[in-house]
Design brief:
mainly alpha
């Protein structure tokens, strides 16, 4: 079979498949406001949004110990999880490197 024809058919199939599944990944813009009883968008004005943000800032300033809510140094946080994952995968990689330096297929003269 002609290689160019097979390659073209495969490419067309991939493009159509990607187009079919891309419809499910559409992101919709968020609206301001709550939906009313009959489905209309509520009145959530810019002033109301600014007032809500001002109250959130005041609450954060009043409770400085609460922080941002992201526990960076906790074992369940960002840095803690990175250290734990690095230790686990680093230990596995180290074991493979040590085992690879000896054995049947190791190069002669390298240990």
């Amino acid at each position: 079979m002609n290689t160019k024809l097979l390659l073209t058919a495969s490419l067309v199939a991939v493009i159509f498949t990607a187009g079919y599944y891309a419809e499910n990944a559409v992101a919709f813009a968020q609206y301001m406001g709550n939906v009313g009883d009959s489905g209309e968008t509520g009145t959530y004005t810019l002033e109301e949004a600014l007032e809500l943000q001002r109250r959130r800032i005041e609450s954060a300033n009043a409770n400085p110990a609460s922080g941002s809510g992201t526990p960076y140094l906790d074992a369940g946080g960002v840095i803690g999880a990175a250290v734990i994952a690095g230790a686990v995968f680093g230990g596995i990689a180290g074991a493979f490197f040590i085992r690879g330096m000896s054995g049947k297929y190791a190069a002669m003269g390298r240990g």
